[in-house]
Amino acid sequence: MKIQERTGAGNNRSATSAQPAMGERLPSAPRERKPALAALAVLLILVGALGATMLVLRAGDRVEVVRVTADIQAGESVGDHITSVMVADDPSINYVRWNQRTGLKALKAKSTIYNGTVVIGDMFASKSSLPAGKAVVGLSLKEGQYPADLKSGDIVAAYFVGDSSSSSSSSSSSSERSGSSSSGGSSTPIVSAARVTSVPDDSDSTISSTNKQVTVTVDESDAAALTRAAAANAVSLVLVSGN
Prior knowledge:
By secondary structure, the protein is of the alpha+beta class.
């Protein structure tokens, strides 16, 4: 009897433990899948990847163009003051390509082009065009008649500095220019503000005593007096404010 009771008790325990424990989650219904939303997400990912690829390819489409390495004044050629630089290709910008540099050197700047500027074709013309009322005068100056660091774009004053020998040959011209001139020169400048438009590099002179050929732009009213003084080799240039 005792054995049967134990067996029965064991059967009762196993039957009770087979019931679900309190707090256990019941199985939920399967979620409804939405294939349209999944397809839209995949499409958006593909469009974003394509856009990023196009941007990378566009950034990599670069061309070699001309950039100036010194200030180029109006009426000047770029000469050898150029270098190449890579920029993003843009059909709307009229870049001067590096392989066009030979033709560029035959053109003249329409206005001042500053160092570091990337060149476009509209900056140059086949002929130099001076502003109205201006004239270009060439000077041949010895050492001491110009500042050592003179460069294109500088603003200078031009003084008459003839000695006793040159003043006798130019006294009539200097008296026309200024009533205060003397054999030692004049305290009144021939030109108070002239812009230097061309100065050769020091490396271009093979002999240190060779005259430096300087070109300046002045008012037309000052051109005659400056030319006469330059012919007598009696001109000295001085840097003035405005540089």
